[in-house]
């Protein structure tokens, strides 16, 4: 005998995938008749193909992500990574680790552009520099996450719970993929203005991802992301200035 399913379970099963056009839940995106022979399903709400990106190469999806097309973000967040699924702990931890690592690279690049004290070769100075970068990463991102959560809750008037907050933060982490270009800056020399360009792309990408996840107005999502990035930038600059001044005084005393 087939067990009965509750209304919430049926609703959750329907919303496992989403239409990239209207954002409504759909049971399945395609039907596979044989290997390499599939038929894309149409959305019952908008009557369009639910997700045409299924048949696209990854480079096409990446180009549309760079162009900030909301359909591409819908495909990435809900149909590829399936943020509606309950088990996203592993993805969240991996994304957080990569995000913090890339953020540490960014802060190191800023410190090097300001002629930090790495040339002395002292072990104590190296440990102090690593501790300073770690402190900046943790404090800056704490401010960033706080502004995102508070701005979404009060400015955009969206009710939040633990699952909803996790979904929003995961979308923010994944949409910060432009930070991967920082790896190239660690290997080759680039002008410091490239850091500013990367930050602008990350900000706009975060705003699109927040709009896709929350289904709120673009202007409000952009304002929340701008405030979060501005607060983080202010914290980075202030903390670097404060700790750099402390290092100078310490070196002068010794």
TrEMBL record:
Keywords: Endoplasmic reticulum, Lipid metabolism, Lipid transport, Membrane, Sphingolipid metabolism, Transmembrane, Transmembrane helix, Transport
Pfam families referenced in this protein's UniProt entry, alphabetically: Arv1
GO BP terms, alphabetized: intracellular sterol transport; regulation of plasma membrane sterol distribution; sphingolipid metabolic process; sterol metabolic process
Signal peptide: none
Keyword Transmembrane: yes
Bilayer-spanning residue ranges: 133-156, 168-188
Any Gene Ontology CC annotation: cortical endoplasmic reticulum
Subcellular location: Endoplasmic reticulum membrane
Coarse class of the protein's main subcellular location: endoplasmic reticulum
Membrane protein topology class: Multi-pass membrane protein
Family designation: Belongs to the ARV1 family.
Database matches in PANTHER family: ARV1, PROTEIN ARV1
Protein role: Regulates also the sphingolipid metabolism. Mediator of sterol homeostasis involved in sterol uptake, trafficking and distribution into membranes.
Name of the protein this chain belongs to: Protein ARV
Species lineage: Eukaryota, Viridiplantae, Streptophyta, Embryophyta, Tracheophyta
Gene that encodes the chain: LOC103710490
